[in-house]
Amino acid sequence: MHRRVARVSGSLQVPGDKSLSHRALIFAALGTGTSRVRGILESADVRATAGALRALGWSVPALGADMAIAGGGLHAHAHPETPMACENSGTTARLMSGVAAAQRTIATLDGDASLRRRPMRRISDPLARMGAGIAWMENEGTLPMQVTGGALHEVSWESPVASAQVKSAILLAGLCGGVTVRVREPQPSRDHTERMLQSLGAPLSHAGDWIVLEPSAALPPAEWDVPGDPSSAAFFAALAAGAASGSLTLTQVLLNPHRVGFLRALERMGVVFDVHNESQAGGEPVGDVVVHAGALRATTVDEQEIPSLIDELPMLAALGAIAEGDTVIRGAMELRSKESDRISVMVSNLRLAGVRAEELEDGMVISGPADLRDAPVATHGDHRIAMAFGVLGAITGLRFEVDQPEAVDVSYPSFWHDLARVTR
Ligand code: S3P
C-alpha cells in the first residue's frame, strides 16, 4: 500500500454542470424573447454547441458568466455552409442532430478523432424513422454524418441503450418538428431535458416507462442558474475521501437523483460526507457537499446503477487502487463508447502504475490497496482519464505523467489550478 499524503482543506465551487449548460444554451436559442443563463460551463464542449447553433442561424453570444440570449424560435435561420464542428463533444453531436433533423436544411456534423469513433446509429436510427435523411460521409455509423432535415412524423422509440443523449435527440427533434415523440429506455438516464422542458411549460408527461412529448408552438424565455457539475465535483470528492487528512466543501453541486451515483458508491466505501444548504436551482436540487478523509473499502457497482455514475467510473476505478479489497464495475459496456475506451484505458494505465487490474468485457476489477509507483499516463485525449490520475497522483504524492493535461479543457478548464489550490 502506498502512503496517502494529500491534506485537503477549504471549499471549492466547481464549474457549471456540462449537461445543463448544453441544454440551457439550446433551450435559450430555441425560445422566444431573451433568456438569461448564469454560471454556464465555459469549456470547449459547450462552445461546440454554441457554434453548432450559430451554424444553423441562431444568435448565441460568446460564453460568459451571465449571458443574455435572444431566442430565435424553433426553426433555423441559416443553412450551414461547412460541417458543424462538434469537436470532442458527444452531447453536441447527438443533441444537435436532433435539432437539425427537424430543420429544412442539410447539415453535416463532424467531430475530432475521438468523436469520429463514437457510435451514432443510436441517434440516426430514430431520426431516420422520424423521416430525416441520414448519410454517412466516411464510415457507416460514425461522424461525419449528413442530416437532411424536413417534415418529421411522430415516433415511439424504445432505445436499446440508457442514454440521455439519445433520449434528448428524439425529444428535440419532436419539439422542433412539431410532432409527438415517445421514448423508453432500458434504465432511466439523466432527466435534465425532461425537467427543463417541463419547467418551460412544454407538454411532457410520463406514461409508465414512456416519456411523451407533445407538440408546442413555441418555448418561452427562461432564466437558468447552472449549478456545479457533480461529475467534476466527483474528482474532488474522491480527493478528499482519499486524502491523509482534512475535509473539503464542494459548494452548490447539482444533486439530481440520476447524477449522485458516485456519492452513493463513496458511502458504501465508508466515506463520510454531509450535505448542507439544500435548495433548488433551475428546477434541479443542489447542495453543498462536505467530504471527509478516511478509510476506504472496495465496492461493487452493478448495471442498474451505471447511468447514475457513468462519467465518474474512471475516478472510481482509480480510487479502487487505494481501497481495501476488489472494486468491481459490471454492466458498464457503455464505458467503451465514451471519449476513449475507458475500460481498456483505465486498466492499462493502472497496471503501469503497479495496480492489479482486470479488464472485463463490460467492466473491470481493481484490487487494492496497490503498491503504486510513478508511471506515465496515456489519456488518449480523454479529460476524465487525465483528471482521475491527477487526483490519484495528488492523493499518493506519486508522479503520474499525464500525456495531455490540456484534455481537461472540454469539461473543466481550471481543473489543475483547482487541484493545486485545495491540496496546498
Ligand atoms: C450526457 C449523457 C451521458 C454522459 C455525457 C453527457 C448528456 O452520455 O456520459 O457525458 O448531457 O446527455 P449518454 O447519454 O450517451 O449516456
Which terms summarize this structure?
24% strand; 4-stranded mixed beta sheet; binds shikimate-3-phosphate; 31% helix; UDP-n-acetylglucosamine1-carboxyvinyl-transferase, Chain; 22 strands; 2 domains; alpha/beta; 12 helices; 424 residues
Q: In words, what does this structure look like?
A:
It is a single chain. The chain is an alpha/beta fold and 424 residues long. It has 2 domains: 7-15 and 227-422, UDP-n-acetylglucosamine1-carboxyvinyl-transferase, Chain, CATH 3.65.10; 18-225, Alpha-beta prism (UDP-n-acetylglucosamine1-carboxyvinyl-transferase, Chain). It is 31% helix and 24% strand. The chain contains 12 helices and 22 strands. The strands form 6 sheets. Strands 1, 2, 14, 15 and 16 form a 5-stranded mixed β-sheet that branches. It has a 4-stranded mixed β-sheet with strand order 5-6-8-7. A hairpin with an 8-residue loop joins β7 (133-136) and β8 (145-148). α1 packs parallel to α6 and α7 (230-242) packs parallel to α11. The longest helix is centred in the middle third of the chain and has 14 residues, at 164-177. Shikimate-3-phosphate (S3P) binds at residues 19, 91, 163-165, 168, 189-190, 310-311, 334. Residues 19, 91, 163-165, 168, 189-190, 310-311, 334 line the site of shikimate-3-phosphate.
